[in-house]
Design brief:
8-stranded mixed beta sheet; 8 strands; 316 residues
């Protein structure tokens, strides 16, 4: 049986066909924009806390929609394993220094997975690789009950400690003691500053022309020479150490005894020193005159020759 359509039925059928074609084209266009026909590259990452992330969470790269989260799993070590994909056109931007972090684009919006763009000097990460994650905290996360309770408990402990300090300084004597300590801080700081300046001057003098190095070197040489001499002295005179101790004690006694006497003649010491020098000069003159006499001239000559022939102790 041949079916015949009138003019109005043909127009209505054409309109329905055009509507169906429009819906198909719109769906294909939306699929192309969503990247349904583009290749997908899958990656994984782990978080200690994946609050606000779920299957279908948006993956962004530089603010652009790059993919979605596929699965969220809890592993045996209590870390959250997140699997996601990015569109193929973003794959060459995912490199070894790229990181993943959970951010909230707006203060009260949903969290998204932010994938950072890698540097050109790094290699591209292959498919099914793990990407390093960064833990972040935003305002909404801080205001959540899970974190707010712990923060309030810590704040309560701080307030208790402040209360102890307030009770301690409520005592007038303690407050006055604290004020006295603060008043003494300024002179102490000035003294420390003066001491540091003096130490700097002393260090400059000590290091001038390598003075310390030369002093240490001379002490080392002196110590070696003393170590060589002491065994010989101990063998030659075992009682020398005791004699030195007795001599030191006698010198100490003599020093204590001479102290008052020196104080009594302290005013006459400059004149006595001058007379002593004059006496030494006169003695030298007398000795030289005696050496030039007929009886001692030959003996003095022999002594000088012996002194010239003697080998110095430093050359032995």
């Amino acid at each position: 049986m041949k079916v015949k359509f009138n003019k109005f039925e043909r127009v209505a059928g054409l309109f329905v066909m055009l509507a169906i074609c429009g819906v198909i084209l719109t769906g294909v266009s939306a699929a192309i924009k969503q990247g349904w026909f583009e290749p997908k590259v899958r990656y994984t990452t782990t978080f200690e806390n994946a609050d606000g992330i779920h299957q279908g969470t948006l993956v962004q790269m530089a603010g652009l929609r790059a993919g979605e989260v596929e699965t969220v799993e809890l592993e045996s070590d209590n870390r959250i394993r997140v699997s996601f994909y990015v569109l193929g056109k973003f794959q060459n931007r995912v490199r070894e220094n790229s990181t993943v972090q959970l951010i909230r684009p707006f203060i009260i919006g949903e969290r998204v997975l932010e994938l950072t763009v890698g540097g050109e000097e790094y290699d591209v990460i292959p498919d099914l690789s793990a990407i390093k994650s960064l833990e972040t905290v935003d305002l909404m996360t801080l205001m959540s009950g899970k974190h707010l309770n712990s923060y309030l408990s810590k704040l309560g402990g701080i307030l208790e400690s402040v209360q102890v300090l307030v009770d301690a300084f409520a005592d007038k004597s303690r407050a006055e003691s604290l004020v006295r300590v603060i008043d003494r801080m300024d002179p102490l700081v000035k003294n420390l500053n003066t001491m540091s300046m003096e130490v700097i001057k002393l260090s400059k003098q000590a290091t001038h022309d390598d003075g310390v190095q030369k002093l240490v070197g001379n002490l080392a040489v002196t110590t070696r020479e003393i170590n060589k001499i002491l065994p010989e002295l101990n063998e030659a005179n075992p009682a020398m150490a005791k004699d030195l101790a007795v001599m030191t004690q006698n010198l100490a006694v003599m020093t204590r005894a001479l102290g008052p006497a020196v104080k009594e003649v302290e005013g006459e010491l400059p004149g006595a020193s001058v007379r002593l020098v004059q006496a030494l000069n006169e003695t030298v003159v007398v000795l030289k005159a005696m050496q030039k006499s007929f009886f001692m001239r030959s003996s003095v000559k022999e002594v000088k020759e012996e002194e010239q022939e003697r080998v110095p102790a430093s050359q032995k």
